[in-house]
Amino acid sequence: MDEVIAEATPLRRTMRTFDLTLLGIGAIIGTGIFVLTGKGALTAGPALSVSFLLAAVCCGFAGLCYAEFASMVPVSGSAYTYAYIAFGEIVAFMIGWDLVLEYALQAATVSAGWSGYFVNLLDGLGLHIPVQLTAAYGTTPGVTTYFNLPGFLIVLAITWVLSIGINQTKRTNDVMVLIKLAVIILFIVCVVRFVQPDNWKPFSPYGWYSFRSGSTTPMGIIPAASIVFFSFIGFDAVSSSAEETINPNKTLPRGILISLGISTVLYIIMTLIMTGVVRYPEFAKFINAPVAGVILKTGMGWLAFIVNIGALLGMTTVMLVQLYGQSRICYAMSRDGMIPRFFGTVHPRYRTPFQGTWFFGLLTAIAGGLVNINVLFELVNIGTLSAFIIVSAGIIWMRWKHPEAHRGFRAPGVPFTPLVSIVFCLVLIAGLNWETWVRFVVWFALGMVVYFSYAASHSKLRLADKNRADDTHRDHHEIDGSQSASH
């Protein structure tokens, strides 16, 4: 562990608590409010606010574990690095392999939602993109589409910002998040007077977990929490900025926990207002743009344009933080020899992992442009929940194995806190459908092939052990030779 912490970083330290908080809010608030509240309301009814709270509690317990690890091991890599320290390289590789997919898949998924809002905004201004270039092939029923051009271009633009430096990334994110928060607060202030408490009855029409007659899709608070958990994915990406953070022992835990707390409060207020203005079955009419549907119900057309801007900025910051976290995890894995050195090469001028950032940025942009990946967002959830379980278990292990290690922040109530985090994660995983489990197992198996065919033989840890063994063997050989000569 000491070797990992002590290693010098070529990255530039400029991030403070304020920047990390906005980075976390930028990752969390976006798709959850502007897209997933529609499907969530149909799944849980007005009790969607409880689903958000359940997902937030799960993230909160996991966030305490992340905060302790971030203060103890302030280096890039997030859950990958924490698993590396606690459980060794094979578990770390699988978590890193998992998170690389999850971050890219989430960014590509969000780019599809961003494209929809962008096309609507242009239509309102009298500008029109050919419908064939507004979505991936087969995405829109009854409409022939081939390529999601807006989604492709926004991912490339974000990749460019990420590649030219952390200062540019930080400033871009800070501005967009502040505007997004202002738009959300404006929505709350303007729409709250249209709430009708009768729309909250029944508050929990499907209970905690149930099935509709003839359906295999679970309904209720827990399945909805499993869906909206996607909204909170990204707060953990804050910890991937450790090597670009000033005084990470203190600022990282603060950034993680403050951003999670602010986002949770806003999510609960928003869902209560939205289900109070529109009865939950009506969200089926505008499932892909629930906020727009709520505004339509109020008749405030002027607010729709402003909220559209907020939605675009919200989803832009989500993609920015996801691609940022992905590039830093790849940087850490490359440094450890788990993936080729190409992905961890730092640009001498921009001081960023330039090549790796562009490689995965291009792949994400192409995936968002060509592939109908909206059905795969639950794969993002199961992968992230698995990472949370590993990090939480790692806290218990490190408290027992290395109680003397310096911790700038200590998660309260250990081992109770990480155990509760693990239980909540397992409950949310249980709310996902079986197809998600199959896809996850296939990706996991592919990762094992990559590990044993490349990572195991190129691992810096194994190479160091081999060099030490060779040195020891050579020393013994020299000693034996000198003893033979003396005889």
Automatic annotation (TrEMBL):
Topology class, membrane: Multi-pass membrane protein
Subcellular location: Membrane
Coiled-coil region(s): none
Top-rank lineage group of the source organism: Bacteria
Gene Ontology molecular function: any one: amino acid transmembrane transporter activity
Keywords assigned: Membrane, Transmembrane, Transmembrane helix, Transport
Pfam families, per database record: AA_permease_2
TM stretches of this protein: 20-42, 48-67, 79-97, 146-165, 177-196, 216-235, 256-280, 300-325, 357-376, 382-400, 412-431, 437-456
GO cellular component, one term: membrane
Major location (coarse): membrane
Protein name per Swiss-Prot or TrEMBL: Amino acid permease
Organism: Bifidobacterium mongoliense DSM 21395
